[in-house]
């Protein structure tokens, strides 16, 4: 695309000059550093492409530049640009700011949380609001005002909205009006070029009938975007869509299929249309990740690769997908070039077969493809490893490539699988078996870790009993040796956590594999922030510095006095309020807020503990106070780890957040115990 005169372009997120990347779905240009954050968010948040080194359809590139030059960024930074609405004091990132945490937190808030987007007035019926916005979008796409349509989409308008009175979608309207850039934007946001109107005509038909033949051809390309992209990735060619819609490359040295390869193909053919569609979209996303990785490595200064700018080693977690599917998507990164090429070829062949309604033995188009790797080919792919946890359905497929984003499409064919009921039962059984095996393995690991820890504690207790049995109460001794006073033995029905003391650094799924659905952290995001903390009880409190010395001496007379229930409840509410503030900071990745939050919690805990006698007569009170103070002290120690001892030293924020949440749980538990004990004793 030719630009309209020289224009000073800057990064939309930090204002760095000469941005090299574009976020297609957000209509902004970004620099290398900010792009690394965009890529880590996933395509469901931001679809990125290099402006110079990636292959661009001309009209798509024109659409991005038009949005960027007409202030699309103000949509995502609305409240930052309006002084009357600035409440939080948040500021935009600067080019000199560090990627982590400053730029990354700002970008997450801007695009993932939509923290600065103009908010509509609250209404009781959100569905009515979305419908009104979608009707406005339906009307606006006939004009060339791209930023207005992007604003409507950002507020919740649906790109595939079917107007009940007019019987068309916004893409029908844009196609009839010849608004190519509007059509590009709608397709990016999920509009289907093959969707029929009330009379069965598609947007492609509308464009042709209105004489917009180039737009019609472009919409056909969009309809087959998925399979075109897969074929181009392997052989650098795309079908022209005049003589055919598919190119099926063939590995030049794999003419004889092994039994394993044949079995894998049968698995692929046995998938329902919905599961096959999901697999194809996941492979499409993996192709996009690999292509961007190649551009990323080619454009970076290799002498400074060890920086905050990081590549994306596997597909980020999409919270809209099941845990099983997210894990399967990430396993695609482990396929070497030959394995991945074989999977793509099988998907292309199967997509063509399903779309054209051919039998399972249908021949495919052949195109010689030189081997992309010298590694031995392992043909055994677990194609159904990304199957969704939802029940499979048999909805028809409309097109093998009608998606550029992660939303499901239909693909113009019928499900040709024989014995649908038997197949569905097989897939459900296979998923259930895999889930059961995974749970068994997890339980075995946790049980082993806990058994080792229990033996270690018992051994230390026997060794030290001879020394401390006279001077130290057993309850205090057990706490000092590493087990929370509130800890209870894990039973098979207990909510188990794969993060025992020794195993937590190795089994945290989110920090190693990005599987958000199984992560301990996400359990705190719904309902009561403390309810999701059940099971996170195994907290090591074995360090001597974790305890105040005044708690370790019980010499002198014991004081039977207790504070009033009202005072204890008041202080507990303050502790809980501060804990909730800490958990919110964890949810929003505000790691720099950990230290001040922990100090507030420690102060509230100190005030609460001061209500009680220094030497309470009741053992439950003493145990709860020890746990309360020790956990608060440990929380401060953990939160201080957000600041590395040496500049540039790596910090495992996932593990750190996990430990902080564990400490917070024990504080809340101890406070609750003190309220319960005080209430009970006062009644007596």
UniProtKB/TrEMBL annotation:
Listed PANTHER family: ARF GTPASE-ACTIVATING PROTEIN GIT1 (PTHR46097:SF1), G PROTEIN-COUPLED RECEPTOR KINASE INTERACTING ARFGAP (PTHR46097)
Name of this chain's protein: GIT ArfGAP 1
Organism domain of life: Eukaryota
Biased composition (Polar residues): 357-374
A GO molecular function held by the record: GTPase activator activity
Pfam families: Ank_2, ArfGap, GIT1_C, GIT_CC, GIT_SHD
TM annotation in the entry: none
The species this protein was found in: Sus scrofa (Pig)
Domain (Arf-GAP): residue spans on this chain: 1-124
GO terms of biological process kind: brain development; regulation of ARF protein signal transduction
Keyword terms, alphabetized: ANK repeat, Coiled coil, GTPase activation, Metal-binding, Repeat, Zinc, Zinc-finger
Region of interest: Disordered: 354-416, 495-529
Classification via PROSITE patterns: ANK_REP_REGION, ANK_REPEAT, ARFGAP
SMART domains cross-referenced by the UniProt entry: ANK, ArfGap, GIT
Positions annotated as ANK repeat: 166-198
Biased composition (Acidic residues): 385-394
Keyword Protein transport on entry: no
């Amino acid at each position: 695309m030719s630009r309209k005169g020289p224009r000073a372009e800057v990064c939309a997120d930090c204002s760095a000059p000469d941005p090299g990347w574009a976020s297609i779905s957000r209509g902004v240009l970004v620099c290398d550093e900010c792009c690394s954050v965009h890529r880590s968010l996933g395509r469901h948040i931001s679809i990125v492409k290099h402006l110079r080194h990636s292959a661009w359809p001309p009209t798509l590139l024109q659409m991005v530049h038009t949005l960027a030059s007409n202030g699309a960024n103000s949509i995502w930074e609305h409240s930052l640009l309006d002084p009357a609405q600035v409440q939080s004091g948040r500021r935009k990132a600067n080019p000199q700011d560090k990627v982590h945490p400053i730029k990354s937190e700002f970008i997450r808030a801007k695009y993932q949380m939509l923290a600065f987007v103009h908010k509509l007035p609250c209404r009781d019926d959100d569905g009515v609001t979305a419908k009104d916005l979608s009707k406005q979008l339906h009307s606006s796409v006939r004009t060339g005002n791209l930023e207005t349509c992007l604003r409507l989409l950002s507020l919740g308008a649906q790109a595939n909205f079917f107007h009940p009175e007019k019987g068309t979608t916004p893409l029908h309207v844009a196609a009839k009006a010849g608004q190519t850039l509007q059509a590009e934007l709608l397709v990016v946001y999920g509009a289907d070029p093959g969707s029929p109107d009330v009379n069965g005509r598609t947007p492609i038909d509308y464009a042709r009938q209105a004489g917009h033949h180039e737009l019609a051809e472009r919409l056909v390309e969009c309809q087959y975007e998925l399979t075109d992209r897969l074929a181009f990735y392997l052989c650098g060619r795309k079908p022209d869509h005049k003589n055919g819609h598919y190119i099926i490359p063939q590995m030049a040295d794999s003419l004889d299929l092994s039994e394993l390869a044949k079995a894998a193909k049968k698995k692929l053919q046995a998938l329902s249309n919905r599961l096959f569609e999901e697999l194809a979209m996941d492979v499409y996303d993996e192709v996009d990740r690999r292509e961007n990785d190649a551009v990323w490595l080619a454009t970076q200064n290799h002498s400074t690769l060890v920086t905050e700018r990081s590549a994306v080693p596997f597909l980020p977690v999409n919270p809209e997908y099941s845990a099983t599917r997210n894990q399967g998507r990430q396993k695609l990164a482990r396929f070497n070039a030959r394995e991945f090429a074989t999977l793509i070829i099988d998907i292309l062949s199967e997509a063509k077969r399903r779309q054209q309604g051919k039998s399972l033995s249908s021949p495919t188009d052949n195109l010689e493809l030189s081997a992309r790797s010298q590694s031995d080919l392992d043909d055994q792919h677990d194609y159904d490893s990304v199957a969704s946890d939802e029940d499979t359905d048999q909805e028809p497929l409309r097109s093998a490539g009608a998606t550029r984003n992660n939303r499901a499409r239909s693909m113009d064919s019928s499900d040709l699988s024989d014995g649908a009921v038997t197949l569905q039962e097989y897939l459900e059984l296979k998923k259930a078996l895999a889930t059961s095996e995974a749970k068994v393995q997890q339980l075995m690991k946790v049980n082993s870790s806990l058994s080792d820890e229990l033996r270690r504690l018992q051994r230390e207790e026997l060794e030290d009993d001879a020394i401390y049995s006279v001077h130290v109460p057993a309850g205090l001794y057990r706490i000092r040796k590493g087990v929370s006073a509130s800890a209870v033995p894990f039973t098979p029905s207990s909510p188990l956590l794969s993060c025992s003391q020794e195993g937590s650094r190795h089994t945290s799924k989110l920090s190693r594999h990005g599987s958000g659905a199984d992560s301990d952290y996400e359990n705190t995001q719904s309902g009561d922030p403390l309810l999701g903390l059940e099971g996170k009880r195994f907290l090591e409190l074995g360090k001597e510095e974790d305890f105040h010395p005044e708690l370790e001496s019980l010499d002198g007379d014991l004081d039977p006095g207790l504070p009033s229930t009202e005072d204890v409840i008041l202080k507990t509410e303050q502790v809980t309020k501060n804990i909730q503030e800490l958990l919110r900071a964890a949810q929003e990745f505000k790691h720099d807020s950990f230290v001040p939050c922990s100090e507030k919690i420690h102060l509230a805990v100190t005030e609460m503990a001061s209500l009680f006698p220094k030497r309470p007569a009741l053992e439950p009170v003493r145990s709860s106070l020890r746990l309360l103070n020790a956990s608060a002290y440990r929380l401060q120690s953990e939160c201080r780890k957000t600041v590395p001892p040496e500049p540039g030293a790596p910090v495992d924020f996932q593990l750190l957040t996990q430990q902080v949440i564990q400490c917070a749980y024990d504080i809340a538990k101890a406070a609750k115990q003190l309220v319960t004990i005080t209430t009970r004793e006062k009644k007596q």
